[in-house]
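Support request, please re-run this one:
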Amino acid sequence: NVSEWIDSSVNTFDVSQAVLAARPSYTASSGGVIFDTTGGTDFLQSIADYQLTSEFTIGFKVKSSSIIAIETNILSSSTNPSLLELNGCCNVDIYGATGAGKNLTTTTGNIEDAYIVMTRNSANTIELTFNGIVQDTNTFTTVPRFNQIGTNFDGSIFEIMVFDSTSQALTDKINERLSNL
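Re-run finished. Output below.
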């Protein structure tokens, strides 16, 4: 079982799980960290919240055990509302520390097996890219924060990337990386 997921950046935003029964597992054949909610809630957590105060880019690749019927958190906070959750087959919701949120919808597929990139630029416009195709935009001015990965998620997470900047070149590189996982 996975006791720690190490941040590969210089920020050392590592997440861990001390409780054996709440640890996700790792499968080398797929390269995924498997979060299982059937026997309990698996999640990894850091000590402090990570805040995204201005521009950001978040990319992740997931494979759900089934089409997601309820809200499941990819990134969340133990002290505040979740940051990024999958909601139903086709929605990605983002929330800030105040609980204010926005829903973005995919139009070209379901989230059961997908890679997703969400960005917020300096004008506070968030954009959802689903499997390399721009899907939806909205305005989001709240400061999101997180300290947990995988809470209430039933499936595999292959990669999560969080940047405090945004650019088309960065989004393109993330899409390329995630499409090859």
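The radius of gyration is 15 Å. Residues 80 and 97 are 6 Å apart (CA to CA).
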